[in-house]
Amino acid sequence: MIFLLLHGLTVVRALTLLVAHGVVEAQAKAASRAEERGPMSANPTLAALLRAYVEGDRGARLALADWLEERGDPRAGAVRAARIDWDTVARQIYRGRNPASPHRRDHREGYDWPELNRIRWWIDCALLGSPVPADVAAAVQQAHRRWLAGLFPDLGSSGL
Fold first, then answer.
1. DSSP for 114-135?
2. pTM to 2 decimal places
3. Among candidates 82, 91, 100, which has minimal Cα distance to 144?
4. In this prediction, what percent of the chain has a pLDDT beyond 90?
C-alpha cells in the first residue's frame, strides 16, 4: 500500500485497488461482521471514508456513496448529490473578512460583489483540491462536517 501511496494515489483509491485485488478481503469480512453487531459509529470503514471526505479527498464522497449503497443505506443518494449551499458559505467567509463598513461599493445588500465572487471561486477551487486561502479551506471543511453531521447524527463529532 505504501508503494501505491508514493505514486500519488489517495488513501481511498489505494484501498480500492487493494480490495479489488483481494489483499484486504479478510479485513472487509471482519468489518462486515462488526457492522452487523454494532451501530454505524463502531464501523471503522465508515469513519475513514467520512474523514477522507472532510479532509478534501475528492474520490471519498463517491466511494462513501457506493459503500452506503452496497449496504442498502438510503443516505447514499444524499451523499451522491452533496447538496451544500456554497453561496451561503461564501457570504459567511466574506462577513468574517469584512466587518460592517459604510464604504462598500454595493449598498443594495452590503456586499462587494467582486470580492464575494472571488471567495466563491476559491470555494470551487478548494472543492477541486487546489490550494486556497486558509480561511476558505477551513470553511469548506467545516461545511462538509456540518453537512455530514446532519446525515450521520449517530456518529457525533468522533466520526468526523
1. HHHHHHHHHHHHHHTT----HH
2. 0.66
3. 82
4. 44
